[in-house]
Amino acid sequence: MTDAMPQAVESKVPQVTPRERLMDAATRLFCKNGINATGIDAIVSEAGTAKTTLYKNFKSKDDLVDAVLKAESETWRGWFIAAVERAKTPREKLDSIFPALKSWFAEDTYYGCVFINAVGEHSKDETRLRDITIRHKSFILKHISGLAEAAGAKKPDFLAHQIGLLMDGAIVAAMVTRDPTVADAAGMAANALLDEACGPPKIRRTRRAGLQGGAAALAKEDLSVVD
Questions:
Q1: Distance (Å, rounded) from C-alpha 12 to C-alpha 30?
Q2: Which residues fall within 8 angstroms of residue 31, CB to CB, at 6 or more apart?
Q3: Which residue numbers in the chain have pLDDT < 70?
Q4: What are the b/e assignments for 199-216, b being 16+ CB within 10 Å?
Q5: Residue 170 and residue 186 in contact, taking contact as beta carbons nearer than 8 Å
Q6: CA angle at residue 97 from 70 to 109, to 5 degrees?
Q7: CA–CA separation, 112 vs 178, rounded Å?
């Protein structure tokens, strides 16, 4: 008896829509070159679409910018929260902020914060991009404030603001210097603020009993940081 002929399996590859190609292209160009320096022609060329396709999906360049910033905010927030929430305790989560930023700074495609860059390159009385940026940053600060409160800070909002300032400083410094280790200096400053606001991390001592040659062995201390 021969084996049955295997049936061909139709592979379903998700189709990338013209809107998605335009969004991806605009995101890359805005982050690398800036919003003002990126024209519609460059975006449609990068996306491989026609200019009419862009205007079918977006009312204007401003509409496209808003869509890109909203998507970038969701992506960055998701990455940031996932990075810090890997830790166990609130204090450990706060301590993991700057190591996470350092890994971001080390990426070849790191061009700084698209929100800081957007506000910086536009007129200082412009409000639309500033409002989008403030909403993004407020979300991040609220999450940090919640962690600070859980870690024992008496003024969690103020501590979150302090950490936020250190984050912004490190983000700009890393963009200018191309040196990811600026996150280490900012992290040391953040640790000092956290120690002052929440108290230094407590040390949990556990004793491990080992055996040597069948006899009761010496106990060894294992020190680990806890909240």
A1: 31
A2: 72, 109, 111, 114, 117
A3: 1-14, 202-227
A4: eebeeeeeeeeeeeeeee
A5: yes
A6: 55
A7: 10
Give the pLDDT of residue 203: 53
CA dist 69 and 59 (Å) reads 16
pLDDT of residue 16: 86
Chain centre distance of CA 177: 19
For residue 82, the one-letter residue type is: A
Nearest to 167 by CA among 98, 115, 116: 98
pLDDT at 124: 87
**Of 66, 28, 76, 32, which Cα lies nearest the Cα of 48?**
28
Residues 6+ apart with CB under 8 A from 100: 80, 83, 84
Q: CA 111, CA 67: separation in Å to the nearest integer?
A: 19
Which residues, at least 6 apart from 14, have a Cβ–Cβ distance to it below 8 Å?
Answer: none
Tokens of 199: 């108290």
How many residues make up the chain in this entry?
A: 227
Residue owning tokens 């996470």? 100
- What CA–CA distance (Å, rounded) separates 212 from 192? 42
* Token couple for 27: 């995101």
Q: Please state the φ and ψ torsions of residue 24, each to the nearest 5 degrees.
A: -60, -45
Among 102, 82, 94, residue whose Cα is nearest residue 164: 94
